Amino acid sequence: MPPRPCLLILLASLLVAQTERPGQSEQQPIRVQVNEVVVPVTVTDEKGAFVSNLEAGDFLILDEGRPQKIVYFGREQGQPVVVGFLLDMSNTTRLHWKTFQEAVLELVWTLLPGEKKFSGYLITYANEPELVVDTTHDSEKIVERIRKLKPGGGAALFDAIWMACTRRSLIRGEPIEPRRILIIVGDGNDNASKHTLEEVLELAQRNMVTIYGVSTVAFGFTSEGEKTLKRLAEETGGRVEYPLQGVYKDVSGYLSTPSDEGNYALRVGTGGYAAAIASNIVRAVAAVAGEITTQYVLRYVPDEPDSPKAFRNIEVRVNLPNVKVRHRKGYYRFNP
């Protein structure tokens, strides 16, 4: 007789709870047997506001096109999470580093308020990634190190993601509760990694990691890494914020107000320019932190446990018009 769904859930929970102990340092990818599938979901209206009053019956989840029975539904705010802060310390971040340094500090204070159910760690990456602060409940340990950082070097983003999934201490219960989050503050470029985008994307999906990005690319500039950052976020259920892209939204015309710094309505070096940057940074931090703490969490046991397909696609639908639903695109049934 095949195992019953409830038994599969119990086995999955015991596996996570017993084999991954607090403070345990892993040198191999975090291993999770995928019996129960966990799907964090964000729902926003057409104006981008969070829709936070839905019930389990408002959701339909499809696994390879097959409707699934939701065995757990959660929508409470302040759900337990482990947040990895990945900071780009390459040369490209020098110009706005002080601004983004303050943004990251706000993220740390917001997402690690001192309660035991919230944990975080800090990884920086330039020519190589470095686990600067291992998993902790104490936000001040991370804050203290961030204040001492100085950019310089290349960008090993992919190796930093790999490190986040393989070389930090774990919290009991991951990845079901608490959930795993990565926040990348950088431009998405990589010129120094040993691992590839495809490798780290698969690893993140296997480890049930949701990736968010805070882009450091300023208005008027482009980055080859923008598509990379967007793909990492969208395929794992997160999104990217662009706080410096709207700084010049009130441009009065390229030739209408001639000036040496580029004819912008908000001139570099003025109070208006600095205020616009600060305002956008605040909004970006609030958007990322707000989404992480207001997601719905759905769990289900696939009704095809013996399917040979390694990667399985997920689709989540909501019984409401004009809403946008974000979630990870799929999952791997077996570990590498």
Would you mind describing this structure in some detail?
The strands form 3 sheets. The protein has a 6-stranded mixed β-sheet, sandwiched between helices. Residues 1-34, 250-260 and 262-266 have low confidence and may be disordered. The chain has helices at 5-19, 97-111, 139-146, 157-166, 197-206, 226-236, 271-293; strands spanning 37-45, 59-63, 66-67, 70-74, 81-88, 118-125, 129-136, 179-186, 209-215, 240-241, 296-300, 311-318, 323-326, 330-332. Helices cover 27% and strands 24% of the residues. A hairpin with a 3-residue loop joins strand 6 (118-125) and strand 7 (129-136). It is an alpha/beta fold and 336 residues long. The longest helix is centred in the C-terminal third of the chain and has 23 residues, at 271-293. The chain has 2 domains: 5-45 and 55-77 and 299-319, no CATH class; 81-293, 3-Layer(aba) Sandwich (Rossmann fold). Helix 5 packs parallel to helix 6 (226-236). It contains 7 helices and 14 strands.
Mean pLDDT: 82
The number of domains is 2
From the structure provided, what is the oligomeric state, counting identical versus distinct chains? single chain
Task: Count helical runs.
Answer: 7
Strand content: 15-25%
Short recap of the structure:
With 336 residues, this protein is an alpha/beta fold. It is 27% helix and 24% strand.
